[in-house]
Amino acid sequence: MAEITARSLQVLTRGEQIRSAVLAARNAGETVGFVPTMGALHEGHLSLVDAAAAECDRVAASIFVNPTQFGPHEDFAKYPRDLQRDLTLLRQRGCDWAFTPEPAEMYPPGFSTSIDVGPTAAPWEGAARPGHFAGVATVVHKLLQLVPAHCAYFGQKDYQQTLVVRRMAADLNLPVEIRVCPIVRDADGLALSSRNVYLSADERRRALALSQSLKLAESLVRAGETDVAVLRKRMLAHIASVGGVAVEYIAFLPEDAVVETTRIDGPVVVAIAARVGGTRLIDNWRI
Ligand code: PAF
Question: Catalytic site residue 45?
Answer without folding.
Answer: yes
